[in-house]
Write a structure and sequence with these properties.
alpha/beta, Urease, subunit C, domain 1, TIM Barrel, 2 domains, eight-stranded parallel beta sheet, binds N-(iminomethyl)-L-glutamic acid, binds fe (iii) ion
């Protein structure tokens, strides 16, 4: 296992012994909600980090024992130069373990061909035939890409194996780089089970789940026309729950459907996509603890209409933003791009989008130790090359991530 989320923060990680005071922060997004400001914004602020955790946050003028801290050679003082600091991004939905790519499918789509769930099988073939080392190399390079863009917590799904052996390989590889591994054996019907979806589900909830469940935290299913029905999806999710796994759902991506209702009925942590939702879906989400995770990289890359984040937020739904990084529908790992798209295309304010990409992602993973900057939280911080978080949407496509700390260690 590498320096990973599995070891990071609690012990052993580089950051564990390091202490620093990040001071002269022009705008600090804490996500500790204060009157009318869910982002809990502090201006001219400082953050004290010790042993991989946030120890203190507040105004630069109020640093406890400022003189003592700055005189202590063991505590490095880092001047943020008036720039903005935000929590590290929490990307709660990715598919980073796969072989091959689908650039040709993308190019065909840009000439007018429609996106369909069946393209997943192209990646299944490439993934099954790729040796572990090749998959690991690609995975690690994608994780490095995510980190460089400010993502400090990553969820990773299986789902390009669709047989017991390959799903297990993918779960093992994902578990090398994150604790947030999701079993997505029910991504589409495996090619050798074509026309026999229920028999494939028997395999998924039986031998496949038995093999994979010790390695994963979550179970997920693609509940959509061309993938699985609500009844098949429910079987998978209930079997995962019986193994102690948390529930996530892909739903309402390509058209109206049962994904949202199913997710809410099972108290899923998150239902992801939510592009085509009814008034009843919105009301059900608003009354639930299920987060609506929106994935605008998909609509960008498939030329579909964007989900209406404004409608969800106005109804009181908790919204997260994630990249859905995968070779088919969204081959980008950029959370800043998700923020820019959410603001420009989905009716979110910059503050709402930054919250959704940090604290929202943490809610979608039912985590309280990330997505916030407050005493006791993991010291996952991003220093922006910008005076405010608004610049993430205002300056799309510009590399504004200057420094990233994960568990107090510079990435
Ligand atoms: O989240 N919706 C299902 N799964 C992926 C697509 C994967 C693919 O096209 O390879 C998604 O968009
Ligand atoms: Fe996905």
């Amino acid at each position: 296992m590498s320096a990973s989320e599995r070891t990071g923060g609690d012990a052993g990680a580089d950051g564990a012994g390091r202490a620093f005071l990040l001071t002269n922060i022009g705008e600090l997004t804490t996500n500790v909600s204060a009157a009318g400001d869910p982002c809990g914004t502090l201006r001219d602020a400082a953050v004290l980090v010790r042993a991989g955790r946030v120890e203190w946050t507040g105004l630069t003028t109020e640093v406890p024992d400022a003189a003592g801290l700055t005189a202590d050679a063991r505590i490095e003082v880092i001047d943020a130069g008036g720039r903005a600091v935000i929590p590290g991004f929490v990307d709660s939905h990715t598919h980073l373990v796969f072989g091959g790519d689908r650039a040709e499918e993308f190019a065909a789509r840009m000439e007018g061909k429609r996106y369909a769930a069946g393209g997943i099988r192209t990646t299944v073939a490439a993934t099954r035939s790729a040796p572990d080392d090749e998959l690991r190399k690609r995975l690690r390079s994608l994780v490095a890409e995510c980190r460089a863009q400010g993502t400090t917590t990553l969820e990773i799904k299986t789902g390009y194996g669709l047989d017991v052996e390959t799903e297990l390989r993918l779960a093992r590889l994902a578990a090398e780089v994150t604790d947030e591994v999701t079993f997505l054996g029910a991504h589409v019907v495996a090619p050798e089970f074509a026309g026999r979806a229920d028999e494939y589900i028997d395999l998924v909830v039986g031998e496949m789940l038995d093999a994979v469940s010790p390695l994963v935290r979550w179970v997920d299913v693609f509940c959509e026309t061309g993938a699985f029905t609500a009844a098949q999806s429910r079987r998978v999710l209930e079997a995962g729950r019986a193994k102690g796994l948390g529930i996530r759902v892909h739903g309402n991506q390509l058209g109206a459907g049962d994904g949202v209702a199913l997710a809410v009925s099972l108290d899923a942590a998150s239902v992801d996509h939510c592009t085509f939702v009814s008034d009843a879906d919105v009301a059900a989400l608003a009354a639930s603890d299920t987060v609506a995770t929106l994935l605008p990289g998909v609509e960008f890359s498939t030329r579909q209409p964007y989900p209406d984040a404004r409608r969800l937020l106005d109804a009181g739904v908790t919204v997260a933003l994630a990249s859905d990084c995968n070779p088919g529908s969204s081959f980008t790992s950029s959370m800043p791009l998700m923020i820019a798209l959410a603001v420009r295309e989905m009716g979110m304010t910059p503050a709402e989008a930054v919250w959704a990409a940090t604290a929202g992602g943490a809610r979608a993973l039912r985590r309280t130790d990330v997505g916030v900057i407050h005493p006791g939280a993991r010291a996952d911080l991003v220093l922006l090359e910008a005076p405010t978080r608004v610049h993430l949407a205002y300056r799309p496509g510009v590399p504004l991530v200057r420094t990233v700390w994960k568990d107090g260690a510079e990435v």
